[in-house]
Structure formats: C-alpha cells, structure tokens
Specification:
single chain, alpha+beta, 9-stranded mixed beta sheet, 4-stranded antiparallel beta sheet
Length: about 625
C-alpha cells in the first residue's frame, strides 16, 4: 500500500516485451518505470492489472510470468541485457525474493548501527560537486548498470546478475514515485564486461577502484579514468534524451568501501556482497547511493552530518541529521528503511514535500510573504516559513477557520465566533469590538467582508471596531470579493453579487452553490449542488461546467488553472476553459488546495500522515 509519497492504493508492476522499434505509451492507468531495451516495466493500479495485461497483442508481450507468457521465439529475439532484465523482474516477483526481503538483516537499523557498517566511506560523501546533469531527481534518468566480472571468484554468476537486476529494479521503483508528481522514468543500459585483471588488496583505498574500473571501461570501449565515467554518463544522457544520468558499478573486487557514491563524476560503486547488509539488502543501499547522486546528504551520526547548511536542488538544511537535537524521522538517508523525512525530497528536487514533518493543519492555509498561516489540529493559529522551518504557535484565542492575513496583521474567527486580530509576530492582539462572524473574513481595499452569526453580509473598515451590515443580503458561507463586487452563496443556494459601495444584491445566472465562490479574472468559480465544478462570468446567464470535473469544496484559481479537491478526495486541476484536466498527485486531501507563487498547499488525508501540511512545487 503506497500511502506516503504518491498514491494511496495498491499498484502492480508489469513487464512488457516491445516489438522492435515499438513503444509502450503511458496514459492515466500506465506509468512506465524502467526501460531495458525492448523490455519495459510499467506500473498500473492493482484493480486494472488484468485489463492492462489484456492489451498485449501481436508482438507486444505481457511478460509477467517466466513460464507461459514469453515463448521461445520472443526469448531468443532478445539480447542478453534484455533477458537479464526479465530474469531480474521474475526474481523480483518470486516468493523467494519476498521472503529474503522479510528476513533482510538490519531492517530499520541506522546505517551506523554498531552491528553493521555504513554504506559510505569514512568522512561521508562529497556533495559539493554534484554533476550539473543531476541537479534534481525528476523526469527521466539514464543509467549505465555495469557488472564487472573478473577471474575466478571475481566473476559474476548468472544468478548474481539476476539478483543485481532484481535489487536495483526494486530500489529504482521505490525511488521513482517518492514525492513525485509523475513517476521518474529510468532508462537502463546493462553492461557485463569481463576482464582478466586480478584483485590488488594492497592498493591504497582511493586507488582500488581504478584497478578494475579502467580495464572494464576499456572493455566497453569507453575512456578510462574518472573523467571517462563522467563522459560515459553524459553520452547515456544524450543517447536517451534524459534529464539526468549516472553509472552504477557492481563488482567483487576490493574497494574503498562496500558501497559509495561519487556525485561529481557521477557514479555509484557497490560490491555484490553489500557488506553486512548482504546481497538481499542491495535495493535500499542502492537507493541510498542514488540519492547522493542527486544531492541528498547523509543523516546518520557517523557520517559527520551537520544541522543546517544548504543542500540539494532547493538549498535546504539537513535538519533530520542525527547530530541535530530533537526528534528524528525514519529516512533512507539515515536508516535501512524505505521512507523519506521532511528534508530529503527537497534535497533531491522532488516537487512534493511535507512543509514540516510535525506540522498538522485543520483548514486551508493562508500564504503571505513566504510564510504559511494555518489552523492547527489543536485549533491554535500557527505560522511556518515555506522553507519548512519549525512552526510557531500563536498562544492567543483559538480559531475554527482559515486566518486572513493583511500586511502584518492576522484576522480570524475565534472558537467563540468573535473576530480577533493578532500581529504576525504574535506580540499583540485581541478581539475587535463585539463583532461575531461565521467562517473566515476576506479582505479588499481597506475592508474586511464577512458572514455574521445572523447570516447577514457585513463589512468592517480596518481600524474600526464595529461592522456595518450590507442591507438585507443573507448568505450561507463566507463571501468572495473581486472585480468591484462581493459574491456570495445566498440562503437559497443561488449565486449573488453586490457592487462594493452599494447595498442591493442581484442573482448571477443559474448558479447554485454548495460552498463559497472563488473570483478570478471576470468570472466566478464554484462547487455546484451536484458537486460539479462550474464557471460563470460576472454578467453571465448560464453556468458552464468545466468538463466532467467534480469537487467537494471551493476551488482555487491561479495561472489559468482551477485547482480543486475531487469527489475522490484527490487534488486535481483543469484549465479555466475546461480542458487539460489532470491529477496532481494520488495523495488524498481533506480540504481546498491553495496556490501561491507556483506552489500548491493542501491538508493531507492519508492513513499514515493525516492532517499533515503538504506542498507541491509546480516549477
């Protein structure tokens, strides 16, 4: 069950053998994860797996089983690397493989646990020279997977090769969906060079790699030396037109450490034995080293990690480092565990984050000048910077709605329905006169507009202590202001407007609402009484449903897109003309998304991380 990075449902991996020159085109039910020549591993929702397998016809083969799916002619048409990819896939989906995962040594242990050894050399990994092509993990990555066979016990057996494929497939599949809007696609070229060079255990640690690497690179007709590795990776990136690329070496030779990464070249190096974690733990160590390639720092104590700093694509601190004070989250960078902390996705450049691992919210947020304000699950108002710095609680009156931020002042409804204000630094505040309201106030041009507890529409000049009722306009939810008008849901559920400065409300077309409207660029967007997502111009007569979109709450419009919580509780967006509908992520949400500066903020609703504050960076 994927509940934490992308999708809150069961997914199944299916291998396909493509016809020569063919392609498996992804759509809303198929996400292509890994390419190995003509062998493609895709993931589909478990409920759709049988139907998707049935699309295989003619020369497109669904190769889910070793026996029965791939006939002799298809098998012999594959090259050795493609066959290895299938052997790895079949092993990956075997009972024996699942058993070894359940029994792997050191499950959940810190990488520097006294009974084990860290998967990095002493002194940690140099992240100051991450290759430019790997500045973030997103889109697509080309990998040169190189298994170097030497003489005698330095040679790879067929079973060991299959194990390497199975383990790396597992690691890449997990890493490819963690905190991504769209799964990362890996294009893997498999190489199995055989060299005659003997081991040289006496070579200095930093020279051990060259003993086997240079002959292997020569055997593959690549330039020798570290520079050759960098050029090899760049050639893979150009060959496959990917966003990033690196070379992953596996061997039996003596090494600086049983596993390490050199992000600057870029390469990962792993002994097949995988140190004390054994070959059955290659998947997580490989994922850990791959995270280094894309700028993620270590978090276990012996790595000498430090709090703070500026790491990775978004230049974020390493505040889950075990050398920091306070609680620590389980994370692949600190433990033998498939999870990520608050900070690692930002280091990798993934677009989906927890804003802060401890922040829990109970309403949509307000964002102002790089700070997020929200109602916590304890009903107090909190603020947290968009870079995820720890939240600060305002120990004033509690609230039951989203705060409204105007300059350096926050206005909000208290749990006693009184209107309160507090400065954004929390130093002063209190109730405003005897004003009572229901829901969040909205601000426009020196005034707050709000729904009173008597359901009438009111306005309050900033600085005054007594609100003014706007004639006999009654409403069922907080209003919206834009284009010189106040828009609201009438007590008969129809959409109304009243011009600012006037008192008479008029009905807008045929729109019937279930929640507050949203105003943008001369149009009003709203949740219809049938949960449809609608749009109507200020002077329109007929509401337009935006495609087949349905919503459970007030939408949010930004940059030509309408963001909304679907009736499936997932975050969606659609263009304002009703085209281009797409899901943002499979992580369920509890309330309306909010967009500011190309970032979508929402309250999570998955089983493990309910009410957490999430953000999606759209850039």
């Amino acid at each position: 069950m994927i509940t934490h990075g992308h999708v809150n449902q069961e997914w199944a991996d299916i291998a396909f053998v493509l016809p020569a020159g063919g392609e498996l085109h992804p759509h809303d039910r198929i996400a292509v994860l890994q390419h190995y020549g003509r062998v493609v591993i895709a993931t589909v929702p478990e409920d759709d797996a049988d139907e998707v397998r049935a699309i295989a016809h003619g020369s497109l083969v669904a190769a889910g089983r070793r026996h029965g799916d791939v006939d002799a002619a298809t098998w012999h048409s594959l090259d050795p690397a493609e066959r290895l990819a299938l052997e790895g896939y079949w092993l990956n989906h075997s009972e024996e493989y699942r058993r070894t995962k359940d029994e792997r040594p050191g499950m959940g242990a810190a990488w520097d646990h006294p009974d084990f050894l860290p998967p990095d050399p002493p002194g940690g990994v140099d992240l100051t020279a991450v290759a430019e092509m790997n500045h973030r993990l997103r889109g697509s990555v080309a990998i040169g997977l190189v298994m170097v066979s030497g003489p005698d016990d330095l040679a790879f057996s067929d079973d060991q090769k299959a194990r390497v494929l199975a383990e790396t497939q597992t690691g890449l599949s997990w890493l490819g969906w963690m905190w991504q809007l769209k799964r990362v696609r890996y294009i893997v070229d498999v190489y199995t060079p055989t060299i005659t060079t003997p081991a040289d255990p006496s070579a200095p640690d930093r020279e051990k790699e060259a003993v086997w690497r240079n002959p292997a690179m020569k055997e593959m007709k690549q330039k020798e030396g570290k520079e050759g590795v960098g050029e090899f990776a760049e050639s893979l990136r150009k060959k496959h037109s990917t966003d990033g690329a690196y070379v992953a070496f596996f061997m039996h030779y003596p090494a600086l450490n049983f596993a390490y990464a050199e992000p600057g070249w870029p390469e990962t190096v792993m002994q097949y034995s995988n140190g004390p974690w054994t070959p059955y733990g290659i998947d997580r160590v490989f994922a850990h080293e791959t995270c280094h390639i894309f700028g993620a720092p270590d978090e276990y104590r012996e790595s000498l990690c430090r709090c703070g700093g500026s790491h990775g694509y978004y230049h974020m601190p390493n505040d889950n480092c075990d050398n920091c004070d306070g609680p620590h989250e389980f994370c692949i960078m600190g433990r033998n565990w498939y999870d990520m902390c608050t900070w690692t996705p930002r280091h990798l450049g993934a677009p989906i984050w927890w804003v802060n691992g401890q922040d829990k919210i109970f309403s949509p947020v307000a964002v102002s000048e790089g700070v997020i304000y929200y109602q916590g699950t304890d009903s107090y108002i909190y603020r947290v910077k968009t870079d995820g710095k720890p939240a600060v609680r305002f120990d004033k009156e509690q609230t039951s709605a989203t705060p409204c931020v105007v300059g350096k002042v926050i206005y909000y409804q208290g749990t006693n329905y009184r209107l309160y204000q507090v400065t954004t630094d929390g130093t002063s505040g209190g109730s405003i006169g005897e004003i009572k309201l229901m829901g969040s106030p909205v601000y426009s041009d020196g005034y707050l507009y709000y729904r009173g507890t008597d359901n009438y529409l009111y306005k309050l000049r900033i600085g005054d202590t007594e609100g003014e009722r706007i004639a006999n306009n009654k409403l069922l939810s907080p209003p919206a202001v834009g284009g010189g008008y106040i828009f609201y849901q009438g007590t008969n559920y129809y959409l109304y407007k009243v011009r600012i400065g006037e008192t008479t409300g008029t009905r807008v077309g045929d729109g019937e609402l279930l929640s507050s409207p949203f105003v943008s660029d001369g149009a009003v967007y709203f949740q219809g009484t049938n949960n449809g997502l609608y749009r109507i111009p200020f002077d329109g007569k007929v509401s337009q449903q935006l495609g087949e979109c349905r919503t459970l709450a007030t939408p949010f419009v930004a940059g030509g897109w309408v963001y909304h919580q679907g009736t499936d509780c997932l975050p969606w967006r659609v263009k304002t003309d009703g085209t281009g509908r797409e899901i943002l992520t499979g992580a369920p949400i509890r309330s309306s998304p909010v967009v500011a500066d190309d970032v979508v903020y929402f309250e999570g609703n998955d089983l493990l991380h309910e009410n957490h504050l999430y953000m999606i960076n759209l850039t």
